[in-house]
Amino acid sequence: MLRRKFTEYLKQWKAIKKNECLLVRGARQIGKTFIIEDFAKNNYESFVEINFEQNPNLRVAFDGELTVSEMIKRITVYMPSARFIPQKTLVFFDEIQSCPQARASLKFWALDNSFDVIASGSLLGVNYRAVSSFPVGYERQVDMYSLDFEEYLWAVGLSQDFIDSLKKHFVDKVKIDESTHKRMMQYLREYMVIGGMPAVVNQFLATSNYGIVHQEQEKIVQAYLNDIAKYADSADRTKARNCFLSIPRQLAKDNTKFQYSVVEKNGTARKFGNALDWLRDAGIVNYCYNLSTLRFPLPAYVREDQFRIYMGDIGLLVSMYGFEMKAALLDDVLSGPAKGGVYENLMADILHKKKYPLYFFKKDDSTVEIEFVLTSGAHPLPIEVKAKSGRTQSLNTVLSWEGIEAGYKFGNCNVGVDGNKTTMPLYLAIFL
Predict the structure, then answer these.
(1) Where are the beta strands (DSSP E) in 18-145?
(2) Which domains are seen in the chain, by residue range?
(3) What is the mean pLDDT of residues 70-92?
(4) CB 3.0 to 4.6 Å from 376: which of 12, 123, 381, 429, for a disulfide?
């Protein structure tokens, strides 16, 4: 079974929660249902699970009065074997976006406080208009993602002691021996082509067959397209589909900023903006916004009309380029603008799963471009990403600006320090 960091989060929630339900958001097939079921098995005497897509007839249990006693009565009409043992039961509402009244009921489960309640959904961000009353103050919302690179390293058998030793190199800024560096870059390229979708990772662990891995990824991409066809507003379905399918082309340009004209000739934000937001709200893609200036605080300088779009899972992006892309990345022979876009998406994958907002910096009248910008204290922290070891002209430039105290270059290079610039191998980005 795959080891997931989210298990520890669930344990912490159980220990501290009071009059509060947990709402787990995330894209389809990232492992939400499995991890919650496993958590229930190991921590509760009784488990009541309702999947509103598999059992749509159970939606009627949430019509009418929403007191806990009445809901239990109606649920047990359809689930006579369900056992609601006070203080010893986890109630799990899966795909809750398909039953808006169940979402509204979370307030009353929380106030009753006799049972622990977790809800999850893949399309919560796109179905919010159907909920009659949000349980404000009675639900804790948390995002879950596919496996991050550290979880992938656990899956392929690397020990925590070894990973901790890598972190020491990051913290102390000490060079890594060459054999370990080469080994870790190979693991990183492997992660790029496999990604973190649990079904895909499990297939790879079971078969070591990249062909089977690719087939599994194609199934997930098709499932996303099916969701667009089923759940997007009729006016946005074709637009959302076309925006989604344009992402590999967007990231294969010299300028990876999202351009509506790539989706459709003469395309505009007015036509495609809502469709693109649907993909973000479904957890499929992530926005990375341009900054008008490199100053703290970053959100004050966001240019909302200029952004890049990255896939939420790096392996799915690579699969959308076709099977041959896997060999090109694994053998490290890929070249051209597409290579830069894929490595950008890798860094976006790492940063987003660490819950960093995604920002970049590029001025229209300048060649200066910084792929990602974080903060360190009250100062912007520029991060340049290189597929190889390459020069860092833009980073060198901004490191001379007022208010910029330090910066990072991540690439296929070892640890090094040059003034206020630190060079790091890409795989150490998990310790940022």
Answers:
(1) 21-25, 46-51, 89-94, 116-121, 139-143
(2) 6-143 (3.40.50.300), 149-431 (no CATH)
(3) 97
(4) 381
